[in-house]
């Protein structure tokens, strides 16, 4: 089984604790005078020899392994060895950089032998060179040790896989066969001696802790561990619950925080109690190899059982149904309540007995019988859980109560678990005990992974919703700081929540299916990065520190662009002689260039090296050639429109039968507002490549108000001409220069056609002017008794 919590504690201790015989970079002495050469070497040859002996011992230990579970301990030790090598390498890199810089200051050896050089400079160069050579040789040795250890990890994975396949395919006696139980009911003399040896060693360790003079201290430590395990857990859970209720905002975030606090309180207090128990019995006498192996495995089992009970209690929340995260009906939650504790107790007792059998090195018959007993009991517990839960779920549906959310997913899990239990029981009946044990352990591991990641996903989702809520202090601060609209905050919250939960879901899937039985946290992370393209990420130099710098660069850059954009639009540009269209174009161009620079700055802060992005450029070039050429053409056309400005915001244009005012010039397309206030989106490439009529280009365009009227043949043309001319001249919007003109356009049997043309100050008022003129002309024609020609009747 996997025991991620122990691995996390081990990694944290390794990262923050000082290993024996190792010096940190902070312990290196500084150069006090110009004549001092450099800090002394922090890794001595004895340290390298110790590392080599550790690696050789691990290789020898692994070569003697004949059991799948026996590889878990050496695998953790190899991971620890790799961390030690990395720490030593990191402590030497600053010294190597310092030595190179000092040698660069001194310069190379003069080529001219006759050139005089001070003896102290030559001696200092020689000493620095020797020191640098030692550091380079040490780093080279450490790199070779790391490569060897990495290869050993790969070999362990292969051995584990082969042993697992062998164990799963191993056919032994059925649980119905009396010979299956005989090694347990009547163990051999050798097995009895091995068990007696184990308990004798345990008795010696306990006796050393209980010897006269130590009994009071031992009793106090045991009592303290018991208090922390029981009362301490309750106090820690109540304290964290009080903090969540009184410090967390009311809503979903408080509910998910309460569940997470319950799990953390249980795991941390039990972890402290276990460490205290370990110290109690080992402070006087170190553990023997047999007991040390047992203690490591027992710790993993204890943490597994604690996670089972704590996650179940936090998610079921039978005492406070309103705190429950999954949408489970109360009868379903109550039916599930007793099973986690029962399962945890069975695993703690049964797996502990199996670990005693393995640590004592008992016969294979006893080992198989122990595995079969645990697998059988766990299978019966899980099968009873599934049957009872299924019955309650059906009763809930019939009663009309709200069933649990995600019925499809819950039904899928129920089906998979039921099928797994059937296979496990069949394997026990047919003699494939190791297969049954593997299935039951995987179900328990799946429970831990799904519940743990579900809790993390809910906490992350609720945190995003609260931090970017327009009602929360953080959301109001972001809105005021960055000038973000309410809907933008909601979009950011949704995007971050979706990306985060997708990442956690991917991690859960990888953890569930790729980790393998007994995988530690270091191995799990290695598998995750290999699947997610860890090598590619390392080539791009993407590390957590760079991610933080990139995030800050992106946020600060966006804030500066928005602030400077508002300053340009509201303060600087209005004080210039530029027209509004030019100001809008400059603001848009500034924003586009600014965002491009922010993206480049973010990638640079991320540590992305452009030489490693050649494949991206190649892919983009192919995409541009086949599918993105129109987008690129419109983008380039937009830049041309913003720089050359053949049209600008506010111009009245006509193109392809569309006539209206330009309201916005974007990077890809231009928005044209028609007379009915509707918007037409025209690609920028059309404004560059097609014939376009810009009515207002230059600011001096005039509108033409032309009317064409047909009169009967018997009218006085001069009278009508004077009437039309006077009407135009007297209208306030008709310009005096050029003066209105009345022309004789056409003479037909139907009548005389006269055309009158006048100019107005702007093309935008042509239509309203023509309307006013028509009303006035018809009024004057009626007063003069002149009628318009009537159309000839059709045959």
Automatic annotation (TrEMBL):
Bilayer topology term: Multi-pass membrane protein
One Pfam family linked to the record: MS_channel_3rd
Mechanosensitive ion channel MscS C-terminal domain span: 708-788
Every Mechanosensitive ion channel MscS domain range: 631-696
Family: Belongs to the MscS (TC 1.A.23) family.
Protein name: DUF3772 domain-containing protein
Main location: membrane
Domain DUF3772 residues, every copy: 140-201
Leader sequence residues: 1-25
Alphabetized PANTHER family for the sequence: MINICONDUCTANCE MECHANOSENSITIVE CHANNEL MSCM, POTASSIUM CHANNEL RELATED
Organism expressing this protein natively: Pseudomonas hormoni
